[in-house]
Amino acid sequence: MFQKILIANRGEIALRVLRAAKELGISTVVVHSTADADAMHVRLADESVCIGPPPSRDSYLNIHQIVAACEITGADAVHPGYGFLSENAKFADILAAHNITFIGPTGDHIRIMGDKIEAKRTAKRLGIPVVPGSEGAISDEKEAKRVAAEIGYPVIIKASAGGGGRGMKVARNEDDLSVALATAKSEAGAAFGDDAVYIEKYLEKPRHIELQVFGDGAGAGVHLGERDCSLQRRHQKVWEEALSPALNQEERDRIGNIVASAVADLGYRGAGTIEFLYENGEFYFIEMNTRLQVEHPVTEAITGIDLVHEQIRVAAGGGLSVKQSDIRFQGHAIECRINAEDPRTFAPSPGTITHFHTPGGLGIRVDSGVYSGYKIPPYYDSLIGKLIVHGRNRVECMMRLRRALDEFVVDGIKTTLPLFRELVGNTDIANGDYDIHWLEKHLANNPA
Ligand code: ADP
């Protein structure tokens, strides 16, 4: 097992990893920017190293500084959290070259899944259902028209290097296609320095359903069920739940078995998430994230498995602690992402939290790095905490969520808590009847 883990992240996820390391008896080092000197992860870690000024590129994305921090402190492994360097293949390779373990997959697996065309090709080869579309990159309009006519309109043009929902354009008919292709290409080039794009069928009313997977890197793979993350705004997840209200056990077993054997065949190591759009009973692969997800606690709630313990264990060569037949799903869990944002406009609301009081009681978990008197720096994302609620069934979970939201107090800044208070009382949400467009439509129909 590792002696000392360096956590290359900040905020709630740095704290999350720190807790897991402490429970395993492993020492912790955190790195931080000058803006985060007062952060909770810095206060609770055994050691901390300031690695630079506030902008992420100079601190949390600064590979040289992070490797130097490992060498100074003698850390033998790095947990990257999510975001920042978590899906940076070069970072994984550099750590390996320094004999420091990257708690995550190999650089090569990160590289394959980071290139969406390559990822889709790999998924298809492994037997995972994909969205019908072009085999590879689309080079010209003629080819685009041919593929679109074959799969049928509407189609979506997506950047191979894409992320965060950027560089995607929908074409409803052949007339739209040339403009959509040109815009997607130039947006992709500007945003990612790579203008390769591909085409796929545009699904009108899908749900976003993702499968949590784990591999031991040596041919074993399991799945830990799905999360339904259909409630999104601008492709950002807002509310996640497990299991999905839309799936039955037979569908879950079918897709679960497919992804678990794909992970095993790939020789994948560590935690991963295979994301699908789900429509009319069919799954369509969109991408694989080769890291821990923000919404991982809903899976922990229904399986009782600590995913970060499992990541550390697998990275240390200890293999998976569970077989597929050991994994049982109990009850229902919902996560609300609490952001320092205006609940209607979603404009960031940095500032000082004058009062912070979290709910408690059975089935409640709050993962947050903030506290009363904490000043939210304006440089990073706006997530200030996650409320995760577990109940024996979805109805109990929703009732518990409602009362937990009533207890939650965050003063001094605007947060998205009022939005969740509204959602928990909505009939469609109560019925689990929503798709990936539901939230944006609801917000448009209910202006402040
Ligand atoms: P990114 O990596 O930029 O987030 P994804 O491939 O994960 O890109 O897609 C992000 C979102 O875009 C999806 O959650 C979905 O809302 C929408 N989307 C992507 N592909 C399709 C498609 N074929 N049909 C309909 N919507 C899509």
Structural class: alpha+beta
Mean pLDDT: 96
Instruction: Report Rg.
Output: 22 Å
Distance between the termini: 53 Å
CATH architecture of the largest domain: 2-Layer Sandwich
Q: In the CATH scheme, what's the topology name of the largest domain?
A: D-amino Acid Aminotransferase, Chain A, domain 1
**Biggest sheet strand line-up:** 13-12-9-10-11-14-19-17
The distinct ligands, each listed once, are: adenosine-5'-diphosphate
Q: Count of DSSP E strands?
A: 20
CATH classification, class level of the largest domain:
Alpha Beta
Tell me the fraction of residues in β-strands, as a range.
25-35%
**Fraction of residues in H or I helices:** 25-40%
Quaternary state reads single chain
Q: Largest beta sheet, briefly?
A: 8 strands, antiparallel
- Name the shape in a single word: globular
- CATH homologous superfamily of the largest domain, by name? ATP-grasp fold, B domain
Number of helices: 15
Residue stretches low in confidence (pLDDT < 50, at least 5 long) are none
> How many domains in all?
3
Subunit structure: Acetyl-CoA carboxylase is a heterohexamer of biotin carboxyl carrier protein, biotin carboxylase and the two subunits of carboxyl transferase in a 2:2 complex.
InterPro entries: ACC_Biotin_Carboxylase (IPR051602), Acetyl_CoA_COase_biotin_COase (IPR004549), ATP-grasp (IPR011761), BC-like_N (IPR005481), Biotin_carboxylation_dom (IPR011764), Biotin_COase_C (IPR005482), CPAse_ATP-bd (IPR005479), PreATP-grasp_dom_sf (IPR016185)
Catalytic activity: N(6)-biotinyl-L-lysyl-[protein] + hydrogencarbonate + ATP = N(6)-carboxybiotinyl-L-lysyl-[protein] + ADP + phosphate + H(+)
Pathway: Lipid metabolism; malonyl-CoA biosynthesis; malonyl-CoA from acetyl-CoA: step 1/1
